[in-house]
Known about the structure:
The chain is α+β, with helices and mostly antiparallel strands.
Amino acid sequence: MKLVECVPNFSEGRRPEVVSAIRDAIAAVESVALLDVSSDASHNRTVVTFVVAVEHAVEAAFAGIRAARDRIDLNSHSGEHPRMGATDVVPFVPLEGSTMEDCIVLAKQLGERVGKELEIPVFLYERAATRPDRENLADIRRGDMLKRVLYEDKGTGSGWYWQLKNLPNSPESRYLYTVLAGHDFQEGLKNYHQLVYMSDALGDWDGKMLAFQDMIATRERATCERECRTSCGSE
């Protein structure tokens, strides 16, 4: 029998009833052996560790993700640890009889199922990443989605124009249309774009001020030199 270890991290560490529901959903899947459930209140995070047969690994992880989706609201979430979702990461680790290639296949199968059935955007990272810029988890957490959906019409010279119809070509984009069309996002995006424009304008203004200061300093030196020559000549 091929075995893998799975160590999903969930964004909940303060409500025991939610942690228990997630744990029980995972444990109910065939061949699952729970090894550890560790919660941290300050991080507001729980790490579940279990071993499962390869053929049941996706179902077990999916059960935990679904339970977390139904019980965790990140709009009211707070905690010291960075997170990207109710389920933050779901790493698979090869054990007896399995390989890293098996784990990569599991990650992709799980991501596809979560996206289709739960309509949750999924980022594949590390060895399972489909793009080089997704390999490092810290880069994914940092994110550049807002910059990628912003479009500046440089032809107008005003810097106040934006459009959202051209979303980046990435798996998570198809889940964003409703969010992007919402009033709150549109207002926030407008404010963000204005701040970016003002920041760029201030940077340009600062550069011009430095050049202007250099011109003044050059004029002052030239004036001093002329006055010195005039004074020396009159003596």
